Amino acid sequence: MPKTKNRFGLLGKNIGYSFSVGYFAEKFKSLNLEDYEYVNFDIQSIEEFPEIIKNNPNLKGMNVTIPYKEAVIPYLDKISKKAQRIGAVNTIKFTKKGKLKGYNSDFYGFKKSLKPLLEPHHKKALILGTGGASKGVAFALEELGITYTFVSREATDESIGYKLVNATTFDNHQIVINCTPLGTSPNVDAFPPIPYEYFTPKHIAHDLIYNPEETIFLRKAKKQGAKTKNGLEMLRYQAEKSWRIWNKII
């Protein structure tokens, strides 16, 4: 086996379930890239990030997942205009000069995944959660001309609290997107605390989670007739976008 000249990886916390490792292993194999590898960088604190850079001189690119999409930004030399507007980074490119540039491919993946489900009456969305992933989703919705409302545990200037979500909220929001980790394996019994009985066949329920394939959030929405989609297709689209960023085929 030749020595790895090109290393890529995923930065996150408790990411043993990672989709990316298998996806890129298959990609490298299909392209006969024997000196390429993709690994998990599972860290408990973002303060460990500089150590990863120091110990992996062959790093060419990274993906970033929960909970570091915002926390990683101060460690970067530059971020793209879109990532700056979004306020979150999920793709890092290492330049030839050793500089770190941040991008966001989440919004692209989500936009591509949601678009085929949209009908003329889908005008407004509820975004469950206010973390880094929700910021990419909000940006994608803006590009699609869809207005949105954030929902969080406690009401803030930018969001409403879960307790305020009612029948009227569902009447006014035809798309509901779970951007929280609630329901991710192994905690598959968890789900966002919203009144699922108000979903209808006119609603879309989109979960960014892909493991399990069908979360309780999706199952409850489907029971009411809503169109449902998990996060797998979004992940594939964003992974391909990351690959193009790393290889300057943006």
Explain briefly what this protein structure is.
Keywords: Amino-acid biosynthesis, Aromatic amino acid biosynthesis, Oxidoreductase. This protein has 250 residues and is α/β, with parallel strands linked by helices.
Q: What structural class should be given to the helix and strand makeup?
A: alpha/beta
Shape label: elongated
Distance between the termini: 31 Å
Mean pLDDT across all amino acids: 94
Low-pLDDT regions: none
Protein name: Shikimate dehydrogenase family protein
InterPro entries: Aminoacid_DH-like_N_sf, NAD(P)-bd_dom_sf, Shikimate_DH-bd_N, Shikimate_DH_fam
Keywords: Amino-acid biosynthesis, Aromatic amino acid biosynthesis, Oxidoreductase
Pathway: Metabolic intermediate biosynthesis; chorismate biosynthesis; chorismate from D-erythrose 4-phosphate and phosphoenolpyruvate: step 4/7
